[in-house]
Structures are given as structure tokens and as C-alpha cells.
Amino acid sequence: IQGLRAWYAAVSGYEWTAYRINTTGSCPAVPTTMNIEGFSVTLTACTPYVINEAGATYAMHDVSILSERGSFGDVDYVSRTLRATFGGP
Q1: What per-residue confidence (pLDDT) applies to 60?
Q2: Strands 32-36 and 56-69
Q3: What is the pLDDT of residues 23-50, one digit of tens each?
Q4: First to last CA, the chain
């Protein structure tokens, strides 16, 4: 169950990052760490790049989020990493 909670915390971090990019037009500072339901959620990478396709140009972003609870090596340590690319016209 903790693994599933870690995954959803990472998804929340991704959604926060996507919202920030869509409202400001740029990546938040890396690393940015937030606490979501007891999980440390860190934006570990945000790389913007431009795509030129069929005469259209649009911005894409490659994002990586780490969600973890506890310390590595502890019995109850759990972590999940989410990496996604998004953007478009």
C-alpha cells in the first residue's frame, strides 16, 4: 500500500510541475521539494526543448519526479520515480 501511496504522491508532484509550466511558461527550479501526505516529493529534472513538426513549432518538457518516505535501508523505506514528457501546440 505504501508503494501505491508513493506513486500517487509522485503523480501529484508531476501535476504541480505541469501546472507551473503551463502558467509561467518555464520549468520550476530544480530541485524543488514538497511534502505531500508525509512523502518527500522532489522535482529532480525539468528539461524544456522545442519540436518542429510539419511546419508547427511547440514546446515540450521532460520531467522527473522522486517520491520517497523514510531513509534508504530502513525496513519501511519506499520510493517511486515518475518520468514523463509533455507539451504540445
Answers
A1: 93
A2: unpaired
A3: 998 899 999 999 999 999 999 999 999 9
A4: 38
What is the predicted pLDDT for the residue at 87?
84
C-alpha–C-alpha distance, residues 34 and 44, integer Å:
12
Q: What is the 3-state secondary structure (H, E, C) of the chain?
A: CHHHHHHHHHHHHHHHHHHHHHHHCCCCCCCEEEEECCEEEEEEEEEEEEEEECCEEEEEEEEEEEEEECCCCCCCCEEEEEEEEEECC
Of 50, 20, 16, nearest to 34 (Cα)?
A: 16
- Rounded CA separation 83/62 (Å): 7
Q: Return the amino acid letter for 6.
A: A
Cα(22)–Cα(18) distance, rounded to whole angstroms? Answer: 6
Cβ neighbours around 51 below 10 Å, total: 12
